[in-house]
Structure formats: structure tokens, C-alpha cells
Amino acid sequence: MANVDEAIPADAAVPEEKATSFSKPYIRYVVGILTVVYVFNFIDRQILSILLPSIKAEFELSDTALGFLTGFAFAAFYATLGMPIARLADRHSRVNIIAISLSIWSLMTMLCGAAANFWHLLLARIGVGIGEAGGSPPSHSLIADYVPVDGRSTALGIYSLGVSIGILFGFLAGGWLDEFFGWRTAFFVVGLPGILLAIILKLTLKEPPRGHSEGIAQLEGDHPTVAEVVRHLWGQRAFRHIALASALHAFVGYGVIQWMPSFLHRTHEMPTWEIGSWLAPIIGIGGGLGSVLGGVLADRLAKRDIRWQMWISALGLFIGAPFAVGVYISPDPYTSLLFLAIPTVIIAVYHGPVYAMTQALAPLRMRAVAAAVLLFVTNIIGLGFGPQIVGIISDLLKPEFGLDSLRYALLIVSSLYLWSGLHYLLAARTLREDLARVKNSA
Q1: How far apart are CA 146 and CA 159, in angstroms?
Q2: Does the residue 397 lie in any domain?
Q3: How many domains does the chain have?
Q4: In this predicted structure, what is the pLDDT of residue 273?
Q5: In this predicted structure, what is the pLDDT of residue 174?
Q6: Contacts of 379 (CB under 8 A, 6+ apart)
Q7: Fewer C-beta within 10 Å: the chain N or C terminus?
């Protein structure tokens, strides 16, 4: 029976001389500070959703326009630029790229607060997307070079805590700042700390040798083009299903996260400070718990059968989907929030396994770009179209359902969780064979 250790490709590699070593505390620090960077990535990305009711009122926008602002306008630049930036990360200092990117998206978040109209805000959000494009792919690659493969799902699950913690602070800070100081102040307050964090990261994070965690060193030579990486990954059935599953998963997830505050505000008439106070622990703590739990369980169960990396993700969706329906059919906000708490934990288990298997299916020279390819598919379909489609459906249903149009739009989109789970199961069917093929082709 194949396991992850047997599946790591050599990629024209030679044994690494043990001249460079990193202590376990330092490796934990690396994962920790990259997680903090990811926290600010999601604070700056997600805070817009809690501010939408105030922005909608001031600029008099439709749900379709808000969906474009939160979805495709951001995702098109975030996902597309991720691949050329990731290729730079496979050739140059990943630490420098992350520090520069963090500075850019933090500054552009602050500029969102200075927007005089919809178009100014749109341009600033595009700037946030451009900056954030250089965050995750280099971070995935760094973690893969610091953390051995048998603990990588756990490490990437911890890194994925950035999503939940970022959402937690985005909702909490955004809700209260909007209520008492206005939405413009909220953007300034959350953007400023990222500049300081970029300096700390640059001064304290070391660039490891490629392949360090696996005891191998990459030979010098030409790096694969983006097209070559795409062909390599797309030639593996397991990756194709991982990418499609993740994209559908993100389609629902981003649609729900971006529109949940507006749903609670319109349907249940909750004020933004209360919405933020409830959603922060539910999504922040619950989603974070799910991310870490998924990574730990996947690493442990994968020692018996590597396919558990995908089975964990599928089970999370199949178990959590029925509870997600209860969120939108509940008669009061507190029952709705109770239903939301359950699937938030279970559905979030996919982060670590999906990212870890993408790294395992990629040779050393392709790892940052491989992460970018996955994120491109996930974010174009998920982040780009998820919030947008919810907004369009809501506007289409508004003549018949009024303020409840958003409730039914979210309910319709949430049904795609089951389709996503099917692709995780299909990915598991060929995962062992594809990992072996990557090893043998190196």
C-alpha cells in the first residue's frame, strides 16, 4: 500500500548535504508567522462582507454590483497574477515576495476607506487582489520545504487557520468599527498592522533550500513554465478532481461567507455589531477547529491508506450539507446561527489534505506554481463566481420574495456541496496511482 513518503518525487534531485538545519521551535515559528500573514490576508479580504450593508446604503448599489465587488473584480486579479508570481517564487526568494505582497495588500486595504464612490472602491479592491496574489503560493512552498511530508497536512491545516481567524477578526472588528466609527475607519484600522508585519517577516524568516524537508537538493537548471506545470498537474486524474472539488467547495463557501452578514441583516434584522459578534466565533473558531482537525486526522489515517486525505474532505461535506440547509429555513436568527455552527466545523476539514496532496503531486521545481494553479481554479470559480452568482440570483428572485430573495439564493447555491463531495471521492480513486506515477517519472 502506497504512502505519502513513497510518493514524493525526486525531481532530478540529489541527497542534500546537512549543512543547513532548522530547529523544531524555529519551524513552528515559521508556520506560525506565515499563519499570521494569512490571518491578515483574510481580514483584509473578508472585512468587506460585514461592511456591505453600509456600503450598499451609501452608494445605492444592487446585489449584482456588490457581488462583483466582493467576487470577480477581486478574484480575477488575485487568481490570474498568482501563477506568474508563484513562478518567481520557484526561482527567487519566497520570503521577499511574501513581504512585498503583504505590504501592497495592506496599503490597498487602507485606500478602500478613502473611496469616494463605487469605482474608487472597486480599484482599491483590485489592488488588494493584486497584493494577495503573492501570499499563499510562496507560503505553501516554504512550508513544504520546512515540514516533512508526514506532518505536512497538519502544518498546512494550521496555516489554514488563517482563513478562520482572519474571518473572526474581520467580522468582529468590522462589525463594531462600522457600528460606532463607520465603514471607512474599519478599512484603515485593519490595513495598517500589515505594514509592520511585513517588516517583521522580512527580518526574521529565513529562506530554506528547496527540498530541505525531504533531505534532497534541487539541481540547477531551467524551471518549468506555467504551461508545463499545468500540463503535469492536469495529466493526473486525482488532481483534476481535487481542483474541481475545491472550486465547487469554494464557490459555496465564499458565497456564504460574503453574503451571510447581509442575509442576517435583511431577513432577521440584526445590526452589524451583533452579526459580527456572532459570526466571529462561529466561523472563526469553528472553521479553525475544522481546519486543524482535518489536517491531523488526514495525516494519521493516511498512514493506513493515503486515500483518507480525500475521504476526510468528502465526509465533511456529506455530513455538513444537511445542516447547511437549516441555516436558511430557520424562522429566527439564533436557530439559524446554531445550524451554521455545525457545518462550519465539519466542512472546513478539507484545507490541509487538499493543499498537502497538491504539494505531494508536484516536483520540487513546481511547488509554488502548483499551489497557484490550484488556487487559480479555486478562486476563479469559487471566489470569482460564488458571491457574484448569489447576488445575481438574489436580484432575480427579489420581485417574488422581496428581502427573502437572498435567503433562497444562498439555499440554492449551498446544494453544490454534494457535487463537490463527489469529486473528492473520485480523486481518492486514483490518488495512490498518481502519486506513484509522479515518483517514477522523476
Answers
A1: 13
A2: yes
A3: 1
A4: 85
A5: 84
A6: 75, 78, 79, 82, 250
A7: N
CATH of the domain at 345: 1.20.1250.20
User: Does residue 223 or residue 121 have the better pLDDT?
Assistant: 121
Q: What is the CA radius of gyration of the chain?
A: 21
More confident residue, 17 or 223: 223
Which residues, listed in sequence order, are joined to residue 14 by a DSSP beta bridge?
Answer: 217
> Is 129:75 a contact under the CB 8 Å cutoff?
yes
Does residue 135 belong to any structural domain of this protein?
yes
Domain hosting residue 390, numbered range:
22-216+225-441
Measured CA to CA, the distance from residue 224 to residue 57 in angstroms comes to 49
Query: What is the spatial distance between Cα 118 and Cα 61, in angstroms, rounded to a whole number?
Result: 8
Mean pLDDT of 69-82: 80
pLDDT tens, position by position, 132-158: 988 888 898 888 888 877 777 788 878
Number of other residues whose CB lies within 10 A of the CB of residue 193: 14
Residue 321 falls inside a structural domain: yes
H/E element, 305: none
The whole-model pTM stands at 0.71
Instruction: Give the chain's end-to-end CA distance (angstroms, integer).
Output: 20
CB proximity list for 431: less than 8 A, separation 6 or greater: 238, 306, 307, 309, 310, 357
Residue 101: pLDDT over 90 = yes
Q: How far is CA 392 from CA 66, 255, 406, in A?
A: 10, 11, 10
Q: Is 15 helix (H, G, I), strand (E, B) or coil?
A: strand
Answer whether residue 247 is part of any domain: yes
